[in-house]
Amino acid sequence: MAISDTFLTAFILYLVVVVIIALVAWRVTVNLSDFVLGGRRLNGPVAALSAGASDMSAWLLLGLPGAAFSFGLNQIWLPIGLILGAYLNWLFVARPLRVYTERANDALTIPAFLDARLSNNSRAIRVVSALATLVFFAVYTASGLVGGALLMAQSFGLDFTTALLAGTAIIVSYTFVGGFLAVSWTDFFQGNFMFLCLMAVPIMVISGHGGFESTLMAIEHFRPEALQVFQGLSLLGVINLLAWGLGYFGQPHILVRFMAVRTENDIKIARRVSMTWMILSLAGALLTGFVGIAYFQGVISNPEAVFITFAQALFSPAVSGMVLAAILSSIMCAIDSQMLASTSALTEDVYHPIFRPKASQKELVWVGRIALILIAVIAVFLALRSGKGVLDLVSFAWAGLASTFGAPVVLSLFWRGLTANGALAGMILGGSAAIVWSLYISAIVPMYEIIPGIFISTFACIVFSSVGNQPSAEQLALFDSVHKHLES
After folding, report:
1. Distance between alpha carbon 47 and the CA centroid of its chain, in Å?
2. What is the phi/psi pair of residue 261, to 5°?
3. Where does the pLDDT of residue 387 fall: very low under 50, low under 70, confident under 90, or very high at 90 and above?
4. Which of 11, 30, 210, 374 is most buried (most C-beta within 10 Å)?
5. Where are the alpha helices (DSSP H) in 386-449?
6. Residues 282, 288: Cα–Cα separation, whole Å
7. Each residue's pLDDT tens digit, 59-116
8. Percent of the chain with pLDDT over 70
9. CA–CA dist 60, 284 (Å, integer)
10. What ranges do the domains of the chain cover?
11. What angle, rounded to 10 degrees, do the helices at 124-156 and 420-436 form?
């Protein structure tokens, strides 16, 4: 059986599972809270793997193994930064955000939470937040669609445009039907699938190569510089890679997983499951590319295809087809979450409070579904016209979201003195700084734009909070009651 036929069979089996999940989710999606936040009823393991799978995307199975194969152990700094950032996010942000968003008018989105926390329904925070979400997630989603289309085109022998439209239709279909629950449950299924593949490949390669020591000796023979963790990196280069971890504090599609956990008591188990999954998955991805140097004797035509090449070399045609399905599913995990976050921003933060405050829950769910289609069309347009690589788009969107939301979200949870003016200034100046740095300054000062973006956003939040109206007595009372509860 040709690999495209095998992949088709595996992918059809995968789609059957997704359709079943979506139909089950449809039956329990009756209002907007269900559609955009799953009714806050995710258990710990589902929330954990949904957060992890929607975060990692194809980078985990394509980008990181390819980078490890091309450059060696110096790529370890990016996973280290991500692990530290994710752990701190789970440890310090998850529980306060879960408690606060439920008490702050049962906020369903990050913009709605910031509005309830700071501005007494002035709408400015929600509109600015929604616009930033749409801009950066449009780029983010386009990057995932490009990656998925390239893989589908290669596997099925399709042209890029056909593959792009087919992949988008699949993702929109199950998200349209089942909303947040369908996305989260499919993420859980796909996260387990990805994990098994990432564990199996490096273990089989190392075992077949005579053990870890002999594998290291082979790597040293073919490419000795690959064993150096600082090879080709300056101090700023290491800092840039570690700085990716700062992005977790401002990613709405990850933060909403904290908000959707069933109870705050589920946070601890979710953190443990998520971090275990993340550490082992990143280690598996890094090892896959690293041991590939020994297996392929340091030469492969497309480094980002090292995981796929391993699957074809080590497994039967049927299993290798399932591995290809796992890679495509990893891409879909991120795209569906990003589309849903954008849909939530349009529906809950623009349409509902501004145009139809008295809209019924049924109307809002259908508006959300229509918004999903609109966002998908925009993302497809960007994907067709983008001249940048997938990782360049991901890097830009990750930094833009972090620079816009990171400081306002963290400060809103832990600083009593944050005001609406401060949060607005932080979002606008931080997001703008990331864009300007990426377009005009990074070529002169090769610093990842997430660093100046978050610094400027934090500074603006603090400075502008001293200007204008201060927090009301009601807002301060809510802040104090939340922290009293968290300390109990």
Report:
1. 13
2. -60, 140
3. low
4. 11
5. 390-414, 420-436
6. 10
7. 788 788 888 998 889 999 999 999 999 999 999 999 999 999 999 888 888 988 998 8
8. 94
9. 9
10. 3-390
11. 40
Task: Give the Cα separation of 128 and 473 in Å (integer).
Answer: 25
Displacement of CA 195 from its chain's centroid (Å): 16
User: CA 299, CA 70: separation in Å to the nearest integer?
Assistant: 9
**What is the amino acid identity at position 220?**
E
Residue 315, SS3?
A: coil
- Report the distance separating Cα 53 and Cα 371, nearest Å: 23
Q: Which residues of 470-483 are buried (b: 16+ CB within 10 A; e: fewer)?
A: ebeeebeebbeebb
Contact 387, 74 (CB under 8 A): no
> CATH for 3-390, among 1.20.1730.10, 1.10.645.10, 2.60.120.280, 3.40.50.620?
1.20.1730.10
Residue 374: CB atoms within 10 Å:
12
- Lowest-confidence pick of 77-81, 223-227, 390-394, 437-441: 390-394
Lowest mean pLDDT among 161-175, 207-221, 324-338: 324-338
Closest CA to 253 of 332, 338, 174, 179: 338
What is d(CA 194, CA 461) in angstroms, rounded to the nearest whole number?
A: 39
CA 466 vs. chain centroid, Å, equals: 33
Euclidean distance between CA atoms 135 and 56, whole angstroms: 20
